[in-house]
Design brief:
Elements (H helix, E strand, L loop, with lengths): L3 E5 L2 E4 L3 E6 L10 E10 L10 E6 L2 E9 L2 E5 L4 E4 L4 E5 L4 E6 L2 H5 L4 E9 L10 E5 L6 E4 L2 E10 L2 E2 L8 E8 L4 E4 L5 E8 L2 E3 L2 E3 L4 E4 L5 E5 L3 E8 L7 E3 L2 E3 L2 H12 L19
Antiparallel strand pairs: 1-21, 2-3, 3-4, 4-11, 5-10, 6-9, 6-11, 7-8, 7-10, 9-12, 13-14, 14-15, 14-16, 16-23, 17-22, 18-21, 18-23, 19-20, 19-22, 24-25
């Protein structure tokens, strides 16, 4: 049986700059709790103005994770957190019943013309956590466990895998790892989770002998160890977990189990009932008005 159950090619989207979107798709709405997956950049921005800034916008029912390969971003949220995100660090924001945040390009990154590139994901919160109090966590790169083997360098971002345990809070059984392989190096992905995916950020990779092109996400068959072999130097994002505890609806920046909850969030944003981000005077208008 082929190790690859589904092969997902990216769709270009725009969040103020171009991104490649892998999840969700009509056939694959989620891989484990991962309901959204964007590869943003690399993008450089003009030194003056707000190009690339994502103005304040709301979320419910999910946890966002930002992980940068290069550049930096400045996070601000309605809980009052102000946090610069740099490569290798993890920002996890649990929206729960509702949170607002902005993501802006720092002035030094603009001035020095540093490329901003990274992965942004959403994890659907389990049903019992959907209406939790919102929360924000930041973990510097040095806090995350790493694995070094012949030709393999891996950082575990979330969950448990490869005999490592991440300190990043996880609301359901899951894992996410950033891996770099030298040409010819091999990494075996064990069948620890029923749903798993391999995203190839750059390079040429063989998945149990079959090719995976840069920019594609391979959703793997369950129950088997999968052999990943780098044909050139590669960078991978590995992810997976237990299946979601029920169907999720996604509308704009909202994730919920019911249409009624989505409609309530829409009304709350349109009528200004979300707590604002301190110090921010801009916001993204409701797209349905």
């Amino acid at each position: 049986m082929s190790a690859i159950q589904h092969l997902i090619s990216p769709q270009t989207s725009d969040i103020g700059f171009s991104v490649q979107r892998l999840l969700p798709t009509a056939k694959i709405p989620a891989v484990g709790p991962f309901v959204f997956f964007d590869h943003m950049g690399p993008a450089r921005f003009v030194s003056e103005g707000t190009e690339g800034d994502v103005r304040p916008h709301p979320h419910i029912g999910l946890a966002t994770v930002t992980y940068l390969y290069s550049g930096a971003m400045m996070h601000r949220d309605s809980l009052g957190h102000v946090q610069r995100i740099e490569p290798g660090a993890i920002n996890l924001m649990a929206a729960g019943r509702g949170i607002v945040h902005s993501e802006r390009v720092p002035a030094d990154i603009r001035a020095d013309q540093v490329a901003v590139q990274g992965i942004q994901i959403w994890l659907a919160l389990p049903a019992e956590r959907e209406e939790m109090e919102p929360a924000f966590y930041h973990y510097p790169a040095e806090a995350l466990p790493t694995l070094t083997a012949e030709g393999v360098s891996l950082r575990l971002l979330i969950g448990s895998a490869f005999d490592l345990e991440s300190p990043v809070i996880a609301y359901s059984p899951t894992f996410q790892a950033d891996a770099e392989l030298a040409a010819g190096a091999i990494l075996e992905l064990p069948p620890d989770y029923p749903e798993r995916g391999v995203y190839l950020a750059e390079g040429q990779l063989a998945v149990d002998g079959g090719p995976l092109a840069a920019g594609q996400l391979a959703v793997l068959a369950p129950g088997q160890t999968v052999r990943l072999k780098a044909r050139t130097p590669v960078r991978l994002m590995l992810l997976g977990g237990a299946p979601l505890d029920g169907k999720r609806l996604i509308y704009w920046n909202f994730v919920a189990r019911s249409r009624e909850r989505i409609e309530q969030a829409k009304a709350d944003w349109a009528e200004g009932r979300f707590v604002p981000v301190p110090g921010e005077i801009e916001f993204i208008p409701a797209p349905w008005r």
